[in-house]
Design the sequence.
């Protein structure tokens, strides 16, 4: 067993390339014996049957981009054996985040192929390791953007695993410190994750519409917590997509005064339906002038660099624009204007595990969920095009049970 992570599943080979080759070499969809016939519903009914038993590695169906500019195709990947602290989830739903698109399209550098994205995962627990206490077979669990971290650095100890000083293990396309190779995300039939990184999903919620909360939810909730957005304060949400529409709902729940900045005339009315008091086109120079120096907080979800100074001008003295979108070089900031208004530009990266659990629980008690379009795995490529064209209302979620054998 690994002293570092407590997992027994080491030894699949640290050589990422050869492992990838191994994973890609399997033809057809014949699942390993431990997978065959283990559909979630059946196991939900068997109760403790898979509790505390040894489950070996399994081969599962996944949807991957296997090379630059290629469309998605169905492959097999290997999931590690269920270690003592692990939870095995049969994935039910996987949201499509714009980060998935950036990754497979190489916007952040070439990914490791085969790339299986997906970090908005909801699934049913099929098996748990012997030390697991948080879940039992048949429970519903969620996995967001991370599947592990060192657990010992000051950031991890402060519940900020996303900022782990020794390297957060992100859910996909990150070095897999347990099995070698790189991690595979939620566009797949099953996943094995250490218990700490699995989020409890309360009973009775709309599971497909909760998947996006595991990334879009916590990414927008975290800045509202950190910058302490209060009732009556004015917040601007820039970009009404997956993150933006959840941000609106979360800010409305805090009784903040929400104004949406969009580039899409067709979303102006939607923004109000979602609870914003006002929505403006960010190209409307008169509106941008009228609203100058009025905002306590801005959250920008725009997926690429854009001239930011017009938005910084909207902030009150000492207020902050939190950029969660554009993750490359930022554009068009004026140091004099920032100084004159003592305005801050901040970045923020998802949220910790405790915060992810908090946003799920927060939404469950307030009846907040994402607005989704449910698709099947064969529609992923088309969905990506629609996201890039700002044409999703407001999150695609893949029904991972569609076409699944068993
Ligand atoms: P999304 O669903 O595509 O929404 C982004 C929205 O931004 C679009 O709907 C559009 O809204 C607006 N937009 C798009 N292109 C634009 C452009 N060229 N100029 C101005 N506005 C534009 O994406 P998402 O899933 O919400 O993700 C948004 C960004 O956040 C992505 O870059 C993603 O990688 C990043 N992200 C970051 C974190 C983090 O932890 N920091 C977590 C998740 C995602 P309008 O039509 O209203 O203009
Ligand atoms: Zn995401």
Sequence:
């Amino acid at each position: 067993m690994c002293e570092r992570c407590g997992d027994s599943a080491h030894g699949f080979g640290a050589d990422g390339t050869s492992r990838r080759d191994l994973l890609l070499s399997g033809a057809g969809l014949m699942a390993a014996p431990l997978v065959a016939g283990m559909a979630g519903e059946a196991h939900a009914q068997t109760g403790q049957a898979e509790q505390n038993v040894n489950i070996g590695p399994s081969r599962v169906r996944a949807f991957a981009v296997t090379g630059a500019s290629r469309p998605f195709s169905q492959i097999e990947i290997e999931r590690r054996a269920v270690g003592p602290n692990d939870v095995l989830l049969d994935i039910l739903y996987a949201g499509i985040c714009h980060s998935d698109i950036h990754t497979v399209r190489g916007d952040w550098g070439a990914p490791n192929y085969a790339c299986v994205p997906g970090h908005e995962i909801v699934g049913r627990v099929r098996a748990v390791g012997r030390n697991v206490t948080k879940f039992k077979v048949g429970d519903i669990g969620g996995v967001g953007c991370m599947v592990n971290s060192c657990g010992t650095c000051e950031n991890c100890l402060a519940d900020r695993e996303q900022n782990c000083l020794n390297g957060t293990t992100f859910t996909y396309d990150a070095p897999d410190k347990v099995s070698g190779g790189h991690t595979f995300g939620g566009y797949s039939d099953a996943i094995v994750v250490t218990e700490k990184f699995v989020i409890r999903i309360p009973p009775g919620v709309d599971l497909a519409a909760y998947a996006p909360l595991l990334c879009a939810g916590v990414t927008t909730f975290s800045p509202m917590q950190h910058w302490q957005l209060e009732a009556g304060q004015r917040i601007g949400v820039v970009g009404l997509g997956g993150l933006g529409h959840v941000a609106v709902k979360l800010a409305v729940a805090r009784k903040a005064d929400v104004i949406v900045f969009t580039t899409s005339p067709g979303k102006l009315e939607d923004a109000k339906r979602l609870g914003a008091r006002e929505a403006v086109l960010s190209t409307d120079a008169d509106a941008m002038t009228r609203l100058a120096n009025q905002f306590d907080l801005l959250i920008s979800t725009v997926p690429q660099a854009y001239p930011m100074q017009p938005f910084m001008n909207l902030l009150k003295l000492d207020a902050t624009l939190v950029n969660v979108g554009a993750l490359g070089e930022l554009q068009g900031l004026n140091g004099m204007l920032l100084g004159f208004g003592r305005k801050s530009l901040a970045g923020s990266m998802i949220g910790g595990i405790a915060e992810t659990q908090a946003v799920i629980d927060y939404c469950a008690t307030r009846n907040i969920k994402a607005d989704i379009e449910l698709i099947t795995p064969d529609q992923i490529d088309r969905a990506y095009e629609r996201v890039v064209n700002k044409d999703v209302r407001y999150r695609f979620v893949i029904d991972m049970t569609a076409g699944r054998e068993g």
About this structure: The longest strand covers residues 86-95.
